[in-house]
Amino acid sequence: MAEKMCTMRRGFFLMGWILTMSLVGLSFILLPLKAEARNIKVGIIDCYSGPPAVYAKGALNGFKLALKEINKKGVSGRKIEYTTRDTKFKVGIALNMAKELVMREHVDVMVGTINSGAALAVSETVAMPNKVPFIVWISKSENITGKKGNRYAFSAGENTAMAGKAGGVALAKKPYVKYWIAGDDYEYGHAIGKAAWKNLKELKPDVKVIGESWWKPGEPNLTPYITAILSAKPDAVIFCTGGRSMTNIMKAVKATGMAKRVPMWIHTGIDYGVDKPLGLQGPVGVMGTTDYLFYYPETPENKAFDKAYEAAYGDHPGFAAFHGYITAQFIAEAFRKAGSLNKEKFIDALEGLKVKSPVGGKIEMRACDHQAVLPEYFGITATSPKYNFIIAKDITTLTGAEVMPSCEEILKERGK
Amino acid sequence: MGLTQDLTATALGNQLFVGLSMAMILFIVTSGLSFILGVLRVPNIAHGSLYMIGAFSAFSISRLLGGSPIGFWLALLLAPLVVALVSFIAERALFCHLYEREHLMLLLFTFSLMLVLGDLVKMCWGADYRSISAPAMLRGSVNLFGSPFPRYNLFLLLVGPVVAVGLWLFSSKTKIGKIARAAAVDREMVGAIGINVSWVFAFAFVFGCFLAGLGGALVAPTISITLGMDHDIIMEAFLIVTIGGLGNMWGALAGSLIFGLTQSFGILFLPQFAIVFPYAAVVIVLIWRPKGLLKSVW
């Protein structure tokens, strides 16, 4: 009897063994299949609370709009899915979120953020050591693809070097000699000012700075700064402001009637996100630059993009939405080209990749520094019968090649 | 570089008036904070949030009325009342249970209230930058000493003194004002003579917050109305209250003037370091008079 039990047990054991082995065998056959069919996972870290949330939301909306199209067709049989994490504009939180996305969510690509400090930290301490590609879509720090660039960091938007150069190149064509430089006392402000001045001085050596003023970012009352600048009588003023300081400076310029007295250049002074809240109370005659305008160039593609965006979100797209849209394009196209989810292959595919731009034409991801080649539009604010806010007129386009530092310059910077 | 420019009387005069108009907003906000500090002994960190709610309410009210000039004036009137309502609810539901607690608890409590109100503002108004414009008669600039001076700042220069005089009349001539001042000095005594201290406190709190709302509504046309306004103002407001003397209305005025004027003249003389001047002034005042310029009620 005991022996019988034993044999029965042995039978059970054998059956169990066979079952387990076949399961293991099956899983060897099935699992890779399943892995191959899994979706592309994009992890987004950005600031969805506090004042910068308006840009993060714009970028996300642009990204979602592009995904709608992309997922209809699929990317080599896969879909792109995404998950978002709120950084609350803090570098520490951004780093934790990025680590979590990499370790637990196993994302294939990271995307983010408006905070330059966070973007640089994620690039250097999460993306690079973990070998996960990271595409920066709002932050304009030139260090992301410049001095602190690395194989895993990409930028799908303009940066301070490009914006400053656009301003410098455009101002060099003007007759002004005595300049006053003023702006937000943080990295973005100083970087724009430095880049603009370096390029202006190179092209027109006789220009000089007669004074500078720097205020804390978001300083609510800029009127005393403007009256002080006006009493120094410069030929022109370079304002290096960003974020909510933009509305403040535009309002102060309007209230003091400054634009009628002194010409000035403010990067993003012609940006839709800046001019819309001002309505028709925005100052006329301010020179500005941006890398996206929904009403210019008037190509059928741009009109269609604007229409689709407006239909989906009830608003015109700003530059952040534009960056979000092309980021999705870059991700989809690079995975198509790579043919697998291998991150290194994805990076190789993304280098030098050209995708269709929502304004028409193509946008290239420059291979040498991973910076998207984007044109800058230079214009001057004016009212328009079509819109109930000020828009840019007399727009000139500076091509990406014109406003970007050359590959040699970038590599020299990185070598330092 | 700023020092080498010729400092004409024009520039000085202009800067003086700009500084004064800045000080007026600061005064209106800090007088409310100071009033609450004096009567209730509550260091209300959420005061900045109420200022922000004032600005956002002004935006909504003027938007609701189609951005017309009447809309602006009504917003100026109604936005502080909205803030007063919010603060009344907060006082009756939360603050009134906490007056006997120690200061650290009150500090933590008002700090968390600031975070809660900040999130509520985000839920109600979203994260977008908002902006309202002043009516046509207050737009643009006038010539003052031969250089442009914004009309709206001129308007602020008128409103500030009106509020100051109103506050003085209120606290020294009206019965409720006198009771509030008495409660600031000795709340047990006020209770002992049969006055309902709880309602005096409620009134004082709502009144102080009304001033925060008024400040927010007044500042709205000159800046971008956005989350984060609360943090900007509360730091400065506390510094001003401290250098002026805790709970002293005239101290708040003196502190605001020091803050506004050092900043605007700093900008003229040494624009690169303008941020530092008001804070340097605060340090000097506190070294010279550690308890503030005027007599503190504490």
Features:
heterodimer; A: 416 residues; alpha/beta; Rossmann fold; seven-stranded mixed sheet; 15 helices; disordered N terminus; B: 298 residues; mainly alpha; ABC transporter involved in vitamin B12 uptake, BtuC; 3% strand
* Biggest interchain interface, per-side counts: A-B, 46 and 52 residues
As a percent range, the share of helical residues of chain A equals 40-55%
Looking at the structure, the CATH topology of the largest domain in chain A is Rossmann fold
Instruction: Tell me the overall shape of chain A.
Output: elongated
Query: Biggest β-sheet of chain B, characterized?
Result: 2 strands, antiparallel
Number of separate domains of chain A? 2
The 3D shape of chain B can be described as globular
Can you name the CATH architecture of the largest domain in chain A? 3-Layer(aba) Sandwich
- End-to-end Cα distance of chain B, whole Å, is 45 Å
Strand residues, percent of chain B:
under 5%
Distance between the termini of chain A: 84 Å
3D architecture notes:
- The complex is a heterodimer of chains A (416) and B (298).
- Chain A is 49% helix and 18% strand.
- Chain A has 416 residues and is of the alpha/beta class.
- Chain A has 2 domains: 40-158 and 298-374, Response regulator (Rossmann fold); 162-290 and 376-403, Rossmann fold, CATH 3.40.50.
- The longest helix of chain A has 36 residues, at 2-37.
- The termini of chain A are far apart.
- Chain B has helices at residues 9-40, 47-64, 69-93, 103-125, 151-173, 175-185, 187-192, 197-219, 229-244, 249-269, 276-288; strands at 141-144, 147-150.
- Helices cover 71% and strands 3% of the residues of chain B.
- Chain B is globular, with a radius of gyration of 19 Å.
- The interface between A and B is large, with 46 and 52 residues.
